[in-house]
Specification:
Number of helices: 16
Mean pLDDT: 91
Structural class: alpha/beta
Strand order of the largest sheet: 2-5-6-1-7
Order of helices and strands: HEHEHEEHHEHEHHEHHHHHHHEEH
Number of strands: 9
Radius of gyration: 26 Å
Shape: globular
Distance between the termini: 49 Å
Length: 405
């Protein structure tokens, strides 16, 4: 059998061999890029493993095809520590983009000397932008507004549609009132101001479902400032395409039957990361089985799920205490555990299941703690949801193996 590289890529943020089922979301971004005056920015959100980072990367060529410049970065926690850190993040990102443009200004002669070169042309690099920031009086927001205005006036506006500022992992953004530092509020304030001036700077933020509530808490006008795209799992057709199209290449020794595709779809729940993970494991297993002379290779389902548990779930699960795990077990038995649930629903179910049921205040406190470690999130309707896809199924397997008391 000739060597054929496994086409499936389950790594974090790795582009899959075929991006299935995301054309509607791409159309939403195209609409945003058609705005002459930016009235709506984009929040792209969803659970881990749903393909946010991959989809964000597909937006870049779409923007460039419409003559928009692109600034893209991960929004690290360090960038949100202080207002000055956020400013440094923006300045550094802008400078990479604008360093190929030139700006002309008058050179101030030294005292006692005459200058024969009063006009100087220099790249709009980091030093130039930093000088504008430093020389502008006022607060950090005033300085950043001046920088943004300067940048727009320094680039050839007739040749471009605007600039996209795209930040992944934006749930790391936060205000810190106890330190009198408000980087998230400043980011929103600066972009709202710039967009009111008619300058086409579009903000795209990608992150976990905790992102948009944080934006609204920081500035109430955020609801009117952003269009939210919530990514969910793929539907049946898109899951089928994601599974089958990568193995339709010439020379591929593997073909997935209809029954196999249905099995993978069920195991993965339609989540893109799980599809890539499961397909990669099956591909490697089948190649091995065929090389050993097995004509009808089998799917090692139990072994794949066990490996997925260890690679994806265990690290997050280990952050919870025994009592928190017991609470999540209660939640996993609710009919609505895959969508959303209320505190009262959890309390009522715990009274039926446990000798030591949870009170409302205790559930509230524990849900906040679980939110801090990324296992639960609160949506804007007073309901909660698991922040990790298929977590209830994982919990069920822990119960079966006697790992939760």
């Amino acid at each position: 059998m000739e060597s054929f590289e496994n086409p499936f890529r389950p790594g974090a943020g790795h582009t899959p061999p075929y991006l299935a089922g995301r054309s509607n979301e791409q159309d939403e971004v195209k609409k945003a890029l058609n705005q002459r005056v930016v009235l709506e920015n984009i929040v792209l959100t969803g659970l881990r493993g749903v393909g946010k980072t991959v989809l964000l990367e597909t937006f870049k060529p779409i923007a460039q095809a419409k003559r928009w410049l692109w600034i893209g970065q991960d929004m690290s926690e360090s960038a949100s520590v202080s207002e000055s850190n956020l400013a440094e993040r923006l300045i550094a990102d802008i400078a990479v983009l604008t360093s190929t443009f030139l700006v002309t200004h008058e050179k101030q002669p030294s005292v006692g000397f005459e200058s024969h070169e009063s006009i100087v042309t220099r790249p709009v690099g980091y030093d130039v932008i930093r000088d504008i920031y430093t020389a502008t009086p006022g607060l950090v927001s005033d300085k950043l507004k001046a920088v943004m205005l300067f940048v727009w006036r320094s680039i050839p506006q007739d040749a471009i549609g605007g600039i996209v500022f795209a930040y992944d992992e934006a749930q790391n953004l936060a205000d810190h009132a106890h330190k009198e530092q408000y980087p998230l509020s400043i980011l929103l304030d600066v972009f709202q101001y710039i967009q009111r001036q008619g300058i086409p700077f579009l903000l795209i933020l990608t992150g976990l479902p905790t992102l948009f509530p944080k934006l609204v808490d920081a500035r109430t006008y955020t609801e009117r400032m952003f269009h939210v795209i919530f990514l969910t799992q793929l539907d049946e057709k898109a899951s089928h395409d994601a599974i089958t199209i990568p193995v339709q290449k010439s020379g591929c020794p593997i073909t997935f039957s209809k029954r196999t595709v249905e099995s993978i779809t069920k195991m993965s729940g339609g989540y893109p990361y799980f599809i890539q993970f499961i397909c990669r494991e099956i591909f490697d297993s089948w190649i091995s089985q065929i090389q050993r002379g097995i004509k009808s290779p089998q799917i090692p389902s139990r072994e794949i799920i066990k490996k997925l548990d260890n690679d994806f779930f265990i690290g997050r699960w280990a952050k919870a205490t025994d009592r928190q795990r017991q609470l999540m077990h209660v939640i996993s038995t609710l009919d609505t555990c895959h969508s959303e649930f209320s505190v009262q629903e959890v309390v009522n179910r715990s009274k039926k299941m446990l000798n030591r049921p949870f009170s409302s205040s205790h559930v509230n406190q524990m849900l906040v703690s679980l939110g801090d470690i990324g296992l639960i999130y609160k949506n804007r309707y007073g309901k909660y949801s698991f922040a990790v896809p298929l977590l209830s199924d994982f919990i069920g397997r822990q119960i079966t193996e006697g790992l939760i008391i």
